[in-house]
Design goal:
The complex is a heterodimer of chains A (about 450) and B (about 400). Chain A has about 450 residues and is α/β, with parallel strands linked by helices. Chain A is built from 14 helices and 15 strands. In chain A, about 50% of the residues are buried. With about 400 residues, chain B is mainly beta. Classes of the chains: A alpha/beta (about 450), B mainly beta (about 400). Chains A and B meet through helix 1, strand 13, strand 14 and strand 15 of A and strand 1, strand 6, strand 16, strand 17 and strand 20 of B.
Amino acid sequence: MKRNNQFKNIVLALLTLTFLNSCTTTFDEINYNNGNADFTRFVAIGSSFMAGYSDNALYLEAQSNSIPAIIASRFTVAGGGGFLQPLVNPGRGIGMKGNSKYVLRLSPDPCSTDLTITANAEYASGDISNYTAISSAIPFNNVAVPGARIRDLGSQTYGDPSLFLGNPLYARFASNPSTSTITGDALLLNPTFTSVLIGIEDIYNYARRGGEESEDTITTPAMFGTIFTDLMSQLTVQNAGSVVGNIPSLNTIPYFTAVPWNGLYLDAATAADLTYQYSTVDPSISFGAGYNAFVIADVNEPSGRRQIQNGEYILLSIPADSIKCYKWGTIIPIPERFIITRAEAVKIENAVVAYNSIIANEAASRGIALADLNALFKTFKQGIVFNGVKLTTGYLDYSVFSSDGFYPNQKGYALIANEFLRAINRTYSSNLPLVDVNSFQGLVFP
Amino acid sequence: MKTIRILVMLFFLAGTAIGGGFENTPLSMKAASMGGTFTAIGSDASTAFYNPAAMSFLEFSQISLGASFTLNSSSYLSPYMGNSEMTNKLAVHPHVYGVGMLSEKAAVGISVNTPFCLRSVWDDNWTGRYIVRENKIAATYVQPAISFMFSKSFSVGGGPIVAFGKTIHSSAISYNSNSGELAQELNGNSTGFGVNIALYLKPNENFRMGLTYRSAVTMKVKDGAVNFSNVPQSLETNFPSSTTFSTSYKLPSVTSFGVAVKLTRELLLSGEINYTTWKSFDSLQFTFKDQPGLDFSRGEFYKNTFALRMGVQIAVSDKIELRVGGAYDTSPVPDDYLSPENPDAQKFVISGGGSVKLSEHLKLDLAYMLENYKEREVKNSELNFSGNYKSLKNIFGLTLNYEF
């Protein structure tokens, strides 16, 4: 009898040990909370990035996964409400130039049998039926407009539906085209929380035109600061919460880095031949075996040309076959509109630094959250690993940017949204979950 | 009674002791039902595997035939909300043992089983798909053995190990094409060799001891098949169908020491300790023929482990024996390197089962084993993959033992 008791004790001990951990593979529920923020009525304001512009157009899939749409999807676990976006029709999408969304294609070079990947519009034109004004009984939560600069947010003409006056991508959802403003529309919902990302176009419209002043100048930091302060005071009335993003640096965007300044690869014979050709007309230009600096046009040089230097950039908009087939960068200097010189790069980076300090000061003084996208993009540049997969700011391979090289792809927007969410959690003591970047679409290769 | 107390104490002291990795313990149902202890018992043909030295102590030539059926449930909780469940696949592992008595003092035997088996299958679209969709490392060991009795109380045994391995690793590749996300599947076979040495001591009818050493076995996969899917034209040169892969890994050595005590005619207690050199499993490197850009590796950095096991057997009647057992294992896989390829954790094991004598010569062993893995929160810094894992293994099996 005694023996049986011992035996029973052992069995009981074993059973207790095993079942202590419970015998299921389900997890405890996690409680998410909003901390001291109120996500009831969330409104996003900004420009292309905030609108979900990708592959050089606004199209349904990317727009549905815009930064604020992702943020709003997380707010729903902590008291957030609905999130209405002015969605475009399914299909071609609509770009700022009336173009369709871009896709990657495999096309033959004119000068060889090689096939190279190029990015261009999927259709001859975008779906212009999207210009037709869409009306909604309730105001939109995402009033970001592709192409908007900070001064456009308060402009009544920006939503003017007549062609060439306003921005048709605002006019299509403006609450009252030709009189309403983006900021005014943002306030219609009396938001309890806002997200703001503005200023990218103010700097990069200039950069993307190779720094040609006549086309578009950088909004001065003074003007940016005045309008930004005014905007933030309107958005944070009655203690409404907010998260603001800052501006990435030039050298973290593949539109400027995909074609490296010293990307001219020459064998010894070709290099010697080119050097010889330049030796009589322009001896300052020379080449060696391996990677060389491209030859660019520069009006400040007596010869009108020179070799590009480290710290200068060639734009991705350079015709794809020009270098390979038409001797651009070697015999023919690359035109200035495709080049950001050192002076232009300094001007751009100075503006980025000035804007970012305005944004940081504004965030600090109002006690609102700051999403440091500038730092985030710098970490992308080194390459990050998310759930086992590499992501970089390179062009194409593992890129967080879309086919146009300037606007992020959906994975990139998800990473940015996560940075906004982290900033919100930090500032407002909430514990919103981040999103799984691997569940978003990246580039589609041909 | 004192012995029970000591064994129970040992069992609880084993809090820091271990086994783990992907050792497949239920290799014969008699052993499985007693927590995996058999090194000192050696009472049927499966001793050809557990302790070949004990073969010469058997009374009759015999064979054992059986299989275990394992259902593995594993859950992963993502910090990005949502869980993923490992796809439950029923794993069937057959085992065959035979012992032939050459004389009063010598016996030969053969053992065929799968002492190492790892298989993790996750959903095709789960968040960790770039790390793994399916991972399988399985090794079937074929071990012919011989045993000599040097005295009435002491015998030695041993033999070679011939191992046949199967490696499968499939994952998604973070490129999209119009036909979907790219994927790769690696599938290779390997063989390896080792040795197996054992001692058996039986000073009297009621006390037995066993000491065994099964060496490490290096498995080399050469020119394994690589299959890429959904590769678009623009990436054909990056993912060529012509490539093959190679990898190698070292299955650990296992040293076991066991004691069995017959307290009464009906009651048998056994305890056992295993030392497994998992440290040999420090990394897995996959290299591709002519495609160095595709190479990948995983730091595993396993630690050597101890396992402590205990079992009890009661003879209820001439025909029926009942058994229970248990073990406590911690994991050789460190937190920093735990990946969904093998979501191991420390575990509590309980087992139970019994034998029925079907006829004079034929005996049926049944066993059930539950391995309960402790919930584990990890951050794999190499893969930047963090989350919580929780696993449960239900194992059922049967073995038929026929004495000639």
